[in-house]
């Protein structure tokens, strides 16, 4: 890979900024100052340092965000604040995106990544990845309404929703709903189909991973290597 491309991918600045770093002699490759921005390096074997700090190469980045209300799941928007704005400047990269969508007023687990392959796997409707929501509702559900949610309800698509799991939550007007689809406003439409209304929604798990309870709304952390592996196996 070209040295300037490597430095850009490692978030050390734009093409022109990293070239300036090289010109100023701040970049070394295996201990020797780099002279040309277009010199080739082996990103997996060579040691590249900027200002004496070694950079280890990573292609993919994964963040678990506890999405707060009021932010939209997009990379940019002219009107609303996007979830990408919650990242600290040091973690921002032009290739990061939210893997999936939560409504503006939904909170909870959102994966931000630049790994298109993993996102595709997790979001493909064929894969039936579990998503669990803590759903606050306007009034508690009857046994019959729970049964209907579990078996599938008519939300105005060409077929009923896939079987879902409903579990009680701590509060009376709350439930834990696990679905494997991700249709637009799906949870809200499912509850509406049984004559109820969602008053608050929080995603607490995505595939095999559960939202880290230490994360306050708006906070995020990197996934561990083990968590990434588990997601790939989901
Ligand atoms: N279902 C919804 O209705 N909204 C979300 O944000 C996610 C699932």
Which structural traits does this protein have?
234 residues, alpha+beta, 9-stranded mixed β-sheet, 4-stranded antiparallel β-sheet, 6 helices, 13 strands, 21% helix, 25% strand, elongated, binds uracil
Can you walk through the features of this model?
The chain has helices at residues 3-9, 15-23, 116-123, 143-151, 186-193, 225-233, and strands at residues 27-29, 32-33, 48-50, 53-55, 62-67, 97-98, 106-113, 131-137, 165-168, 174-179, 198-206, 209-210, 220-222. Helix content is 21%, strand content 25%. A hairpin with a 7-residue loop joins strand 6 (97-98) and strand 7. With 234 residues, it is α+β, with helices and mostly antiparallel strands. The model has no long low-confidence stretch (mean pLDDT 96). Uracil is lined by residues 102-103, 106, 185-188, 201.
Characterize the biggest β-sheet. 9 strands, mixed
Helix content: 10-25%
Tell me the number of helical segments per DSSP (H or I, 4 or more residues long): 6
Low-confidence stretches: none
Structural class: alpha+beta
Distinct compounds present:
uracil
Strand residue percentage: 15-25%
Number of strands: 13
Overall morphology = elongated
- Tell me, rounded to a whole number, the average pLDDT: 96
Task: Sketch the topology as an H/E string, one letter per element.
Answer: HHEEEEEEEHEHEEHEEEH
What's the end-to-end separation, in Å? 32 Å
What radius of gyration results from the CA coordinates?
A: 22 Å
């Amino acid at each position: 890979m070209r040295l300037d491309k490597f430095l850009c991918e490692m978030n050390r600045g734009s093409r022109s900024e990293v070239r300036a770093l090289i010109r100023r002699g701040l970049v070394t490759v295996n201990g020797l100052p780099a002279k040309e921005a277009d010199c080739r390096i082996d990103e997996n074997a060579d040691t590249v340092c900027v200002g004496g700090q070694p950079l280890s190469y990573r292609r993919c980045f994964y963040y678990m965000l506890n999405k707060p209300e009021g932010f939209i799941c997009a990379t940019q928007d002219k009107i609303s604040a996007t979830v990408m704005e919650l990242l600290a400047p040091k973690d921002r990269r032009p290739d990061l995106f939210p893997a999936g969508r939560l409504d503006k007023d939904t909170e909870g687990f959102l994966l931000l990544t630049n790994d298109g392959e993993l996102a595709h796997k997790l979001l493909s409707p064929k894969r039936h990845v579990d998503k669990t929501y803590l759903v606050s509702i306007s009034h508690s559900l009857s046994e019959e309404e729970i049964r209907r949610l579990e078996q599938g309800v008519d939300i105005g698509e060409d077929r009923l929703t896939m079987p879902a799991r409903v579990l009680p939550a701590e509060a009376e007007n709350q439930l834990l709903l696990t679905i494997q689809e991700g249709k637009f406003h799906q949870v809200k439409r499912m509850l509406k189909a049984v004559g109820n209304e969602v008053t608050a929604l929080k995603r607490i798990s995505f595939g095999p991973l559960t939202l880290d309870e230490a994360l306050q709304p708006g906070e995020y952390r990197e996934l561990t290597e083990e968590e990434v592996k588990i997601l790939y196996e989901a």
